[in-house]
Design a protein that fits this description.
With 136 residues, the protein is of the alpha+beta class. The protein has helices spanning 2-11, 17-32, 39-44, 50-57, 63-74, and strands spanning 81-91, 101-105, 110-124, 129-135. Helix 1 (2-11) packs across helix 5. It is globular.
């Protein structure tokens, strides 16, 4: 996995060496991690501290470019691909949650109070699998 990620980072000129090092350690932790992915728990599974995860999460990282480069490197070009958009609903209560509103919940077949997550993905028609590029 590390070699693949390093190859993708080589194509991303906007990612500097310290951020590359952190992202490699983050991906490694997420591969072996069990439980909720909070800074404290991730600090237990890596040599990095909780504070380091907190600081680096505030910095921007272009996941769309990363996922696109990873997809073009790892998946066959002879397969047919299409773009897909999927909106998912998450029920959520409270007053201070950002983006909280009324959204359509398909499983309940009605509008409900909560959050909506929209995902843009590339779908491989031959393997019948979707790979997420971005989520909002």
């Amino acid at each position: 996995m590390e070699d693949v990620v390093k190859t993708v980072f080589a194509k991303m000129s906007n990612v500097k060496r310290p951020q590359r090092k952190f992202m490699l350690s983050l991906f490694a932790v997420l591969m072996v991690f069990q439980g909720k992915a909070i800074y404290l728990n991730m600090g237990r599974y890596s040599s990095a501290s909780e504070k380091r995860f907190c600081r680096w999460s505030r910095r921007e990282f272009d996941f769309v470019q990363f996922n696109k480069e990873l997809f073009t490197r790892e998946f066959p070009r002879n397969h047919e691909h299409v773009a897909a958009i999927d909106a998912s609903f998450m029920s959520k209560s409270g007053q201070k949650t950002e983006g909280l509103g009324w959204y359509y919940n398909g499983s309940a077949r009605e509008s409900q109070r909560g959050l909506e997550i929209s995902m843009i993905s590339i779908t491989d028609l031959k393997s019948n699998t979707a790979y997420v590029l971005d989520a909002h």
